[in-house]
Amino acid sequence: MKEVFLVKHAVGGRAFIDTGKHPVPYVWNKIDDHWVFTVQIAREEDIAELLKWKNELNVFVFQEIENEPTKKIWFYAGDDSVHYSADKGELTIVATSQIIYVPEQFSAQL
């Protein structure tokens, strides 16, 4: 399975992290009723702009499995859910909601 991790400002806004274009180490796990994303970013200046918009971020995970349509998972990170540790070079995002969708399953009704 191939996976792409995106962090964007709002839904149609610009991408701050896009592992499809610029790979960075990350992991994500479901813990109780939320999802925790941990991203390794060693240089604080690389995420300075992201942190300005930390209360308006959306997180996306696109999962591509051979011979299946791409599954897109959209997570919402709310207030006070984004933190950066300069000591660890680690960005943490906690999402409290998600929507899973497969674009190929949607069709226009005429």
UniProtKB/TrEMBL annotation:
It comes from the Bacteria. This is Phage tail protein. It comes from Paenibacillus marchantiophytorum.
